[in-house]
């Protein structure tokens, strides 16, 4: 009797797993994600600081909308000028999107928003001048570096 219950439970688990894998959809690497920032950041913010955004456009794969415009997205600062010894331009990456109340990890290529100003001497040595500020509502395009299964 216990064996039959065990087998029934295993069957239900596999049936649920099989059904959920049928509903899984994959967004291929190279897909562009167009977002608007929901928070501000500057080139002086530390690496690793997170930011919020939302998708500007639906993500459509093979005629199916996998992510709707307005979907929440989250990212981090991948490089900045916060460390005075490293004068790198501001670089951002998306790290997750919200799908049915759960954050799904994504990996995107880094994006450098805007072009900071430089003087001739700074350009020669690879330095930038001023502070670049990304305001809420700034539109950015991220390219998926890896496929994402939803």
Q: Summarize this, please?
A:
This protein has 150 residues and is α+β, with helices and mostly antiparallel strands.
Q: Can you put this structure into words, describing what you see?
A:
The chain is an alpha+beta fold. The chain has a single domain, classed as Type IV secretion system, VirB10/TraB/TrbI (Lipocalin, Beta Barrel). The protein is built from two helices and twelve strands; from the N terminus they run αβββββββββαβββ. The strands form four sheets. A six-stranded antiparallel beta sheet has the order 9-8-7-4-2-11, with no helix packed on it. A two-stranded antiparallel ribbon has the order 1-12. A two-stranded antiparallel ribbon has the order 3-10. β5 and β6 (64-67) form a beta hairpin.
What descriptive keywords fit this protein?
150 residues, alpha+beta, Lipocalin, 19% helix, 35% strand
What string, H for helix and E for strand, traces the elements in order?
HEEEEEEEEEHEEE
Report low-confidence residues grouped into runs of 5 or more: 12-22
Gyration radius from CA atoms, angstroms: 21 Å
Distance between the termini: 38 Å
User: How many strand segments?
Assistant: 12
β-strand amount? 35-45%
Number of domains: 1
Write down the CATH topology.
Lipocalin
Query: Main β-sheet: number of strands, strand sense, barrel status?
Result: 6 strands, antiparallel
| Number of separate helices | 2
Structural class: alpha+beta
